Amino acid sequence: MYYLGIDLGGTNIKGAVVSEAGEILKEASRPTHNELGAEHVSDEIALLIHTLAEGFSPDLIGGVGLGCPGTVDPSSGIVRYANNLHWELFDLRSALKARTGFLVQLANDANAAALGEAAAGCAKDAESAVILTLGTGVGGGVVLNGKLLTGYTGAASELGHMVIVDGGEPCTCGRRGCLEAYASATGLIRMTREAMAGHPDSLLHAVTREQGAVDGQTAFLAREQGDPAAAAVIQQYIHYLSLGIANIINCFYPQVVALSGGVANQGERLLQPLRREVASQVYGNQYLEKHTEIICCTLGYRAGIIGAAMLAKQA
Ligand SMILES: [Zn+2]
User: Fold this and answer.
1) Per-residue pLDDT tens over the stretch 231-263
2) Taking a C-beta distance cutoff of 8 angstroms, is the pair 275, 269 a contact?
């Protein structure tokens, strides 16, 4: 049996035909054209489903899954709120059923990506995994025994919105001090800018001129050249991230915590100091025989597509 996995983004809709083992057999994408509204986006998704299914016997297509940004109700198929699509209470499952005949399984996109990494990526064969995406925001997904933790309402694992600094920096969600406000690329860029303002002699300025703008790599690049202000930014960033990860481990004790997103491209430069900081905060760490592995994700954007297909397989 094959499954279709779709990742709905604000700019593009990406999809693939995926085997039961999580291998991609065929990929395609279409522009989202979100400015034309939810009904039009549903037309685009339906066209993508037709393109993907072409050439495969209908008897061999086991179902369709879709990862969507925002708050999604997996049982009803309603997208409750997706702020970057400007959607509110849109019945995406009914819209796609009417257009394609498929009963599409839905999940939040970060959750779908977590399921993809657990099924076919960095956490393949792990009994449990938590995936954290460090991008513009901080997304998260929790996979326990191969299944997504969705919670009572479907909105579980908003790990980026655990408060790590009471009364801290404002977060996009309206609260203050969320992990997202510190551990996202956006948070790292803010801390880098603050360091630049306080250290006019820092190499951060030269690196920024070379790059054209401050981004999530700026502080890492300046630190490599021996800049102390950049080293302090990275140390502070890793400390904040370690608070979130230690909290996650103390809640779930997963076999794997895996990081994705732009900042995670630093690989071992980020992971080595992070593992040390996390270890000192894990409950009972020195007495445990087994420890959570902290690693990087391996599937990139395909995690969301493969995970969406796995939603269909599990339905
Ligand atoms: Zn928040």
Assistant:
1) 999 999 999 999 999 999 999 999 999 999 989
2) no
